[in-house]
Amino acid sequence: MIDPRPPIASLSAADLDAWLTEHGAPAFRRKQVWGWLARGATSFDAMRELPKPLRVAMEGDFRATSLRPIAVAQADDGLTTKTLFELDGGHSVEAVVMRYADRSTLCISTQAGCPIGCPFCATGKFPFGRNLKAYEIVEQAVDAQRVLAAEGRRLSHVVFMGMGEPMANYRAVVDSVRRLADPELLGISPRRIVVSTSGLIPRIEQLAEEKIPVTLAISLHAARDELRDVLVPINRKYPVRDLVDAAQAYGARSGRRVSYEWVMLAGVNDTERDAKELGALLKRKLAHVNLIPFNPVDDTPYHAPDRASIRAFKLMVEAQGLNVTVRDTRGREAEAACGQLHERVMRNSAAVS
Fold this sequence. Notes:
Layout: H1 13-22, H2 28-38, H3 52-61, E1 68-75, E2 80-86, E3 92-99, E4 104-107, E5 111-112, E6 130-131, H4 134-149, E7 157-160, H5 170-181, E8 193-197, H6 201-210, E9 215-219, H7 225-231, H8 240-254, E10 258-264, H9 272-281, E11 287-293, H10 307-318, E12 323-326, H11 340-352
């Protein structure tokens, strides 16, 4: 049964101000509420700066969060934590916290499932559930901040690369980015936020009009249409060269270098031909290529290249004049690929029932 109380993060500043006014509280209490959420408060009673009657009233009218953690997996000696959250209505999504020496990054989900259907992705193996609301996206970041605050850390970066296609849930994603950047909440600079897409060109063009300087990441994975049609089926509607043109127009408008993501699949997109095609596609573009070793997914025909093949491909791409990074592989023992923890939990639940 869904708790009828709305989560506090679902209220706009104006809505919360109005509620506070109705309860005889001054407007500065809103900043205190947001501040406590940003510091990891999981209940209104923990917000000790607020008068007791106000805390009781808030507890009666609101929830501190709508997310319910149902599984947690850790890897990399505790540096990577993946949490599976149940949403109102029964769907579930994953969020991954990755700790580095100089930053703490959250990989955030925007949909329960994904409608794009990339064959190497665990998320796409399950039926699409629904779009997340903006507050459900924000709540993932608030929970990450809670976890990190207990460790003396602070959430510094957010990447919209979890479950789902962010641009297919466009308005909620943009609204959540603005909330994440709100200095009264988490205060994360948009320049430290990455929004990925498999290639919804109209939404890329719309994002350029928002004037929020997030970094755009393109889930590329192939530089020729015949291969990308298979790996990223939306390419059949938005061909790769049109996609790169739209991405580069966004980069020029925002002043932000575009990131191109390339999940490396052994014998599929890691050949000399692929390196040369990638170089030709991005020649003289304001671009950075991220090579991502494939995290194995059950019931798919794909495999990760070995380290020597990854290095060889990196050198071939660099020889085409591109800036290239091999993404740090995190959390293999924590079902790090999108949807893998969800898949394990769902399979276990099915086995029990």
